[in-house]
């Protein structure tokens, strides 16, 4: 597997004084944060403190009320909706608690589609998808539809899809939240392996075990703000 993170000092994510308001609710209230290439950062905090809002800003799925979000050197505020969608497809991979695979497509096509949407030919996309499924240990499930995959297999397919375009950043929103403990440990092993070969990770979770296993840095949120940052003694 290869990653596309450039030099180790490269800043992959930079938020400057980001605010996000939904009516009277301050979901983000002045967040500044920097993530460098190769970092593995866990974001934790109580329900409603702004974690998903942060992830949506970094993914370019939503825009701040004020402040700037730069990802992989690009000011996301300078992009229109089409530009944002293209940027996201090329440079950001995402995995979710409930996988978000397309039910009507077998595993291989779910993965290949991510590259086809950026203009890669179907033949090349399918070849890379198969390589990734092999590396993630689920190539034998390539023709199976998501409904017939186990939770752990679904998340592996989702990771393969997220990695298709060699993203500068892999975002994970409760990636083990819907898995049994054995599958959860396997997905954590996978995230650790990816980070060890240079993949930058931003993980939102309620699970301290996931944070301490997979991340080198913990960012704790409260009321839309970063209230503490600390280095983690990873239990790898
Ligand atoms: N689209 C929206 N419209 C209105 N309010 C929203 C919207 N999205 C989030 N909020 C509010 O913003 C605040 C932060 O929500 P957010 O989902 O980011 O929290 P969270 O930390 O991810 O919570 P959880 O851990 O429960 O997922 C909450 O008060 C939430 O109700």
UniProtKB/TrEMBL annotation:
Which Gene Ontology terms of cellular component type are present?
A: membrane protein complex; plasma membrane
Return the SUPFAM superfamilies for the record. Answer: P-loop containing nucleoside triphosphate hydrolases (SSF52540)
Q: Identify the keywords attached in UniProt to this record, alphabetized.
A: ATP-binding, Nucleotide-binding, Transport
Source organism, top-level taxon: Bacteria
Keyword Nucleotide-binding set for record = yes
Tell me the CDD domains matching this sequence.
Answer: ABC_MJ0796_LolCDE_FtsE (cd03255)
| Record domain ABC transporter: where | 13-235
Q: Which Pfam families match?
A: ABC_tran
Sorted alphabetically, which PROSITE patterns does this protein's record hold?
ABC_TRANSPORTER_1, ABC_TRANSPORTER_2
Listed InterPro entries: AAA+_ATPase (IPR003593), ABC_transporter-like_ATP-bd (IPR003439), ABC_transporter-like_CS (IPR017871), ABC_transpr_LolD-like (IPR015854), MacB-like_ATP-bd (IPR017911), P-loop_NTPase (IPR027417)
Q: Which GO terms describe its molecular function?
A: ATP binding; ATP hydrolysis activity; transmembrane transporter activity
Q: What is this protein called?
A: Putative ABC transport system ATP-binding protein
């Amino acid at each position: 597997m290869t990653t596309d993170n450039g030099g180790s000092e490269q800043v992959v994510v930079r938020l400057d004084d980001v605010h996000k308001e939904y009516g009277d609710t301050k979901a983000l209230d002045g967040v500044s944060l920097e993530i460098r290439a190769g970092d593995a950062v866990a974001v934790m905090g109580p329900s409603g403190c702004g974690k998903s809002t942060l992830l949506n800003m970094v993914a370019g799925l939503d825009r701040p009320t004020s402040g700037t979000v730069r990802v992989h050197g690009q000011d996301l505020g300078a992009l229109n909706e089409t530009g944002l969608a293209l940027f996201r497809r090329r440079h950001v991979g995402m995995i979710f608690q409930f996988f978000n695979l397309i039910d009507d497509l077998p595993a291989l096509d779910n993965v290949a589609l991510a590259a086809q949407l950026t203009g890669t030919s179907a033949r090349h996309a399918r070849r890379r998808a198969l390589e990734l499924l092999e590396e993630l240990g689920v190539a034998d499930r390539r023709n199976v539809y998501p409904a017939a995959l186990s939770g752990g297999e679904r998340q592996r397919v989702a990771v393969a899809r997220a990695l298709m375009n060699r993203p500068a950043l892999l975002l994970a929103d409760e990636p083990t939240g819907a898995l049994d403990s054995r599958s959860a440990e396997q997905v954590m092993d996978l995230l650790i392996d990816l980070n060890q070969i240079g993949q930058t990770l931003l993980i939102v979770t309620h699970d301290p075990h996931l944070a301490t296993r997979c991340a080198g840095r913990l960012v704790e949120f409260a009321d839309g703000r970063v209230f503490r940052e600390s280095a983690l003694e990873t239990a790898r």
